[in-house]
């Protein structure tokens, strides 16, 4: 925006700092990353409207706030990726604003995760992954590397952007592969939109765990969203080996991490999360005593790793649930940047912020699903159908 140099208005003191368009833009960039911020700013005066509508301003606004995005809502994996907004007025995104349309999306397709304002979708029949930007509507199709045998292995993946980049992205695909349940290896490969190419295939063996169970389930990469903590992505492993798969983005290496205890016991569920203070953590929900446990993985000075219980949340004291209403608790999704868990309860689907412990009851349903939280910077009036969105936001203020 360097072409707009210090435009001053008649009757304004020459030294007034807000007469400098570049300085005013820097101030406007620091408005809260809420959908109503820029539409409200555009109503102040024609000059402010011109600045926030200038080509490239929203890109800068999105880049400035990409590390503290709003939790706009979530996409329902098992309901055609329908979007449900979670913010209240005046920031509530209109229903249908982020509708997904793809002719090749069918019952064989599967959403793999959402991060940095992008959704990753596996189009099985096409042997492609699709990267979709719900805000702009852009879609990018990428052929899956031949090393991933999608007929016999379950693949998962993650999409992400590098710090300071709102144009390029990376896709990481992972899978557990092997003909013998005792000799399974994890595979990973990274695609860069900057080069348009897949990198080298990375692999590591997955330890075999003997079991007395008559049910022999091969080790698989769980279909939950990956969690990005530090420079690594983490997925749950299920089946024979109950653990966590780590992919280090910097080292381009895979590792298998063992769990602190049996997380798949009766009456409990868990999800991988960012630990408080950084690093890898776990959120474990227990039906037996209606608590949520936050675990953290610690690395000592010698490189040794251990798990420790960091905090326990007494859900029966936090939530308005009567003793006779206590029952099943199911984790439906986790928003890593806002530290919010979506939890199914008898009284409804709740979203709980794990630091402040503030919660909101979204709606009541008897249908279990899986949610991809959509954490992004969105401003009505700066994108496709923006005029309608801005009007709806301002009417509901």
UniProtKB/TrEMBL annotation:
Pfam family of the protein (one): F-box
SMART domains named in the record: FBOX
Superkingdom as given in the UniProt entry: Eukaryota
Start and end residues of each F-box domain: 21-61
Record-given protein name: F-box domain-containing protein
Species of provenance: Triticum aestivum
């Amino acid at each position: 925006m360097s072409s707009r140099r210090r435009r001053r208005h008649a009757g304004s003191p020459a030294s007034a700092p807000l007469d400098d368009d570049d300085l005013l833009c820097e101030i406007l960039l620091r408005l809260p990353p809420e959908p109503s911020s820029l539409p409200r700013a555009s109503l102040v005066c024609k000059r402010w409207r011109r600045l926030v509508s200038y080509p490239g301003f929203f890109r800068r606004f999105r880049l400035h706030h990409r590390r503290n995005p709003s939790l706009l809502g979530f996409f329902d994996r098992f309901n055609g990726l329908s979007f449900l907004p979670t913010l209240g007025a005046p920031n509530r995104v209109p229903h249908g604003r982020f509708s997904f349309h793809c002719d090749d999306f069918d019952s064989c397709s599967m959403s793999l995760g959402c991060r940095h304002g992008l959704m990753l979708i596996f189009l099985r029949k096409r042997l492609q992954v699709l990267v979709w930007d719900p805000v702009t509507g852009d879609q990018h199709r990428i052929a899956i590397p031949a090393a991933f045998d999608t007929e016999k292995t379950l693949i998962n993946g993650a999409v992400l952007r590098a710090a300071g980049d709102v144009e390029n992205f990376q896709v990481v695909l992972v899978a557990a592969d092997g003909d013998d349940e005792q000799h399974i290896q994890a595979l990973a490969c990274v695609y860069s939109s900057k080069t348009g190419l897949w990198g080298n295939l990375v692999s590591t063996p997955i330890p075999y765990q003997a079991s007395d169970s008559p049910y022999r389930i091969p080790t698989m990469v769980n279909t939950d969203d990956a969690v990005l903590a530090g420079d690594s992505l983490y997925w749950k492993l299920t089946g024979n080996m109950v653990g966590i798969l780590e992919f280090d983005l910097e080292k381009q290496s895979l590792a298998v991490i063992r769990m602190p205890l049996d997380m798949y016991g009766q009456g409990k569920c868990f999800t991988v999360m960012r630990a408080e203070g950084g690093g890898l953590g776990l959120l474990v929900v227990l039906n037996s005593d209606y608590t949520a446990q936050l675990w953290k993985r610690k690395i000592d000075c010698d490189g040794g790793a251990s798990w420790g219980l960091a905090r326990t949340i007494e859900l029966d004291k936090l939530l308005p649930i009567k003793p006779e209403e206590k029952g099943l608790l199911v984790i439906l999704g986790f928003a890593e940047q806002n530290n919010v868990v979506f939890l199914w309860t008898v009284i409804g689907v709740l979203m709980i912020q794990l630091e402040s412990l503030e919660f909101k009851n979204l709606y009541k349903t008897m249908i279990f699903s899986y949610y991809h939280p959509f954490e992004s910077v969105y401003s009505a009036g700066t994108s496709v159908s923006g005029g309608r969105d801005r009007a709806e936001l301002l009417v509901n203020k």
